[in-house]
Amino acid sequence: MRVHQLSSSTFISITRQSTAKDLMKDFLRLRQDIACVIEQGRLLGIVTKYSLYRLLLENDLLDVSIEPVIIADVFTVNEEDDAYYAKDLLIEKGIGHAVVVNKFGHVTGIMAKSELIKGLITSTDSVANRLKSLMNHLHEAVISVDLDMRITSINTAALALFQLPEEQLMNRSISQYFSNLTAGLQDSIRTEQSFMKRLFLPNTTAIASFIPIKEWTSVTGAMVVLKDVTDFEKVAQELESTKRIEKVLDSALELAYDGVLITDTEGKITRVNHSFLALFGYQSLQEVLQHPIKQIIPELDSDRSILHNEKIEGELVEIRDKKAILTQMPIIQNGKKIGAIFKLIFKQLDVWKDLLHHMERLEGEISYYRGELLKVSFDNDPFGLIISTNKEIERLKKDAYIASQTFSNILITGESGTGKELLADGIHQSSGRPGAFIKVNCGAIPEELLESEFFGYADGAFTGARKGGKPGKFELAEGGTLFLDEIGDMPLSLQVKILRVLQEKEFERIGDTKTRKADVRILAATNKNLLDMVREGTFREDLYYRIHVIQLHIPPLRERIEDIPLLCEFLFDKFKSKKFKQIEGITKDALAKLTQYTWPGNVRELENVLERAFHFSSSDWIDVEHIHLDRHLVPSIKERPLLQVQTPPNPSTLTPKELVYETERSVLLKTLAKTDGNRTKAAELLGISRSTLYYKLKKYRIKEQSQFKTEDS
Questions:
Q1: pTM of the entire structure?
Q2: What is the Cα 71 distance to its own chain's centre?
Q3: Per-residue pLDDT tens for 701-710?
Q4: Within this chain, do residues 542 and 395 fall inside the same structural domain, yes or no?
Q5: Distances (CA, A) of 366 to 322, 448, 590, 691
Q6: Which of 58, 88, 120 is the last residue of a domain?
Q7: Which of 80, 352, 451, 455 would you call most buried, defined as having the most Cβ atoms within 10 angstroms of its Cβ?
Q8: Cβ pair 509, 468 in contact under 8 A
């Protein structure tokens, strides 16, 4: 609504020469409170009744000029201004009247604040009445509530839908009658957002739109609009045949290369493409549609391929003296066969054959070289398979290498799945011992077989003994390393004999009298507290101190969450080396989900989760829906903060060497932030290899979490 619609076009116009007597007559005649002083079409100011009264009090004469009381500072509004805007200005300025002017500055009327507000109220009432009339003529049911969930309005459609009288509902709590609407209305008020959801009402299915009601800038309530879709769902069921046609067309598009033919369950052709027409020399679709396939392609065994709807993945056939590859796929909907699709590949068969063989050979080579590259990349680093950028793990690797150069026995502790066997293998590789690395899981071998497994047995030592005897683990590990995994599960009876070998460096096979020397280094591992077991009497104290010369503890994965992105990339490369599958990596949201979990099964559990996601993902990226975690085992931990990078020092204070260091580090961080931590893309942008990028990340001590964040990002 515009100002000119609510202003009075009748106004008092005077000049500077007008007298108080003249103005008094105009005020009485037109019953107005202000007069406009206008000369030559230009507004000079206004004179109010109050200023006129003051002039008359100061002068006893009525013929005195009104010029001394002219107010030059006049508040004006344009006749095309919004009426609500003008009202706000009058209230803000604290004045009761304003002069209305047009775009040329000519006075066109007077606007009083009281009249303006009265007009707006009248207009609002009119709009409200029109809206109420509109609501009652809507087919959709509409109910509105205030902040206390009391019903403030309900239209005719809603009353008809729920079959309740209006007087029973108005100003009552909506939860008394429509409890299934309460939560949606409360959410709309709380979030100040509109949203839709499907609701099942008695005998009705409806789409509910929840909308907050705002007055000026504040939410004063909410409304729900209910669209009855029961009839639409019935129509959708009646249009099932249309969906069937769409299903057929979608399936046909999947095989729409070369000749494509679609039949129904009776073997009649329902659709073909132009390549099929060209293959058989037909000019139009009408020549083949609705004809039996046996009539159009007598070379095909239609009884077998159509009536039984068998799946044919590739069969060499000859049609019209042309060789072709036939592929057939049955079309299934709701568990029933509704037809079949035939594809005939007849163009450039020699090229297809060579291309398929070439692709198959390349995929095999890629899988092979992935595996070989993975092996070679860790040949020079015995601890390379322990993937981490964590300071504790790096320190552990250094300690493990130092320990490997000694002759002492080593005890490796840590939770299940942390990689104790990998660390033991790395120690053996670093030790330079010429013998083999022999592993024994003390908890996986039956107690009655443990002694023969460790020490072997002589020929005829017991019934069923292998002829010629059998060497034990100590003999097999001669000159090398014997890894006793889960040593806490070793029975006390065997602990005594193991202790004797460690003390005297010799043993005998079961049933043999010959003493054999044992040049074997012992690496033991456990996820139990052996010292507590010693106190409880379930583990020998003397054996404990024999194997506990050097202890190495592997921290659990939950204490090095920053390693998860690096472990994900390594494990995906490992999976792809076994099965060729195009997986680019893991999304930021999925990575965040992994970093918020406590990982009771440590790296082994992470590998299992990622392996499942790798196999079940149908896209190029592992996303949140592919990650399935056993959250019932351990409650999740709080979300870790993102990587924060310190503000770089002032370049003017750096040496040339320090400046190069800080510049290259900043470039790496910004590139990683730009690629969301994707190292492959970062390496491409930087024009370096991934191995070089890894080296620089380690050099500049850049750790990765769910995303990279710099001071500029």
A1: 0.41
A2: 66
A3: 775 443 444 4
A4: yes
A5: 36, 47, 27, 19
A6: 120
A7: 455
A8: no
Residue 131 lies in a domain: no
Q: Are residues 176 and 114 in the same domain?
A: no
Share of the chain above pLDDT 90, in %: 9
Which CATH number is 545's domain given?
3.40.50.300
CA distance 461 to 488: 29
Q: Return the H-helix or E-strand segment holding 484.
A: strand 481-485
Q: How far is the C-alpha of 153 from the C-alpha of 163, rounded, in Å?
A: 15
Rounded-to-10 torsion of CA 453, 454, 459, 460: -60
Domain count, the chain: 7
Residues 572, 684 contacting (CB under 8 angstroms) = no
Band (238; pLDDT cuts 50, 70, 90): low
Is pLDDT above 80 for 634? no
Per-residue pLDDT band for 354 (boundaries 50, 70, 90) equals low
Terminal alpha carbon distance of the chain: 47
Residues 179 and 286 in one domain: no
Chain centroid to CA 470: how far?
57
What pLDDT, on a 0 to 100 scale, did the predictor assign at position 176? 86
287 vs 599, which has greater pLDDT?
599
In a domain, 685, yes or no: yes
Same domain, 483 and 548: yes
CATH number at residue 225: 3.30.450.20
Whether the predicted pLDDT of 636 surpasses 70: no
Specify the DSSP class assigned to residue 101: E
Mean pLDDT of 128-137: 66
3-class secondary-structure state, position 167: helix
Distance of CA 34 to the CA centre of its chain: 66
Instruction: Please tell me the distance from the alpha carbon of residue 672 to that of residue 643, in angstroms, as a whole number.
Output: 12
Average pLDDT, the chain: 78
CATH of residue 598's domain is 1.10.8.60
Burial of 707 (0-12, 13-18, 19+ CB in 10 A): middle
Q: Which amino acid is at 122?
A: T
Average pLDDT estimate for 402-423: 90
**26 phi and psi, to 5 degrees?**
-65, -40
Determine contact, residues 648/662, Cβ cutoff 8 Å.
Answer: yes
Instruction: State the CATH number of the domain containing residue 665.
Output: 1.10.10.60
d(CA 110, CA 95): 13
Full residue range of the structural domain in which residue 608 is found: 558-626
Whether the predicted pLDDT of 583 surpasses 60: yes
> Are 298 and 445 in the same domain?
no
Which residue do the tokens 């205030």 mark? 146
DSSP string over 379-415 = TT-TTTTS----HHHHHHHHHHHHHHTSSS-EEEE--
> Which stretch of 213-227, 535-549, 676-690 has the lowest confidence by average pLDDT?
676-690
What's the DSSP call for residue 263? E
Verify that 186 and 289 share a domain, yes or no: no
CB 472 within 8 A of CB 511: no
For 141-198, the pLDDT digits (tens) are: 888 999 999 988 888 888 887 888 888 888 889 888 888 888 999 999 999 899 988 8
Q: What is the pLDDT of residue 123?
A: 60
322 touches 346 (CB < 8 A): yes
**Within a domain: residue 631?**
no
The order of strands in the sheet holding 97-101 is 76-78, 97-101, 107-112
pLDDT of residue 32: 82
Q: Is residue 429 part of a domain?
A: yes
Which range has the top average pLDDT, 247-256, 457-466, 483-492, 617-626? Answer: 483-492
User: Which residue, among 49, 21, 12, has the nearest Cα to 33 in the 3D structure?
Assistant: 49
Residue 412: which residues within 8 A CB-CB, separation 6 or more?
420, 423, 424, 523, 524, 525, 526, 551, 552, 553, 554
Q: What pLDDT is attached to residue 212? A: 92
Q: Of all residues in the chain, what percent carry a pLDDT higher than 70?
A: 78
Domain identity same for 408 and 360: no
Is residue 546 domain-shared with residue 471, that is, in the same domain? yes
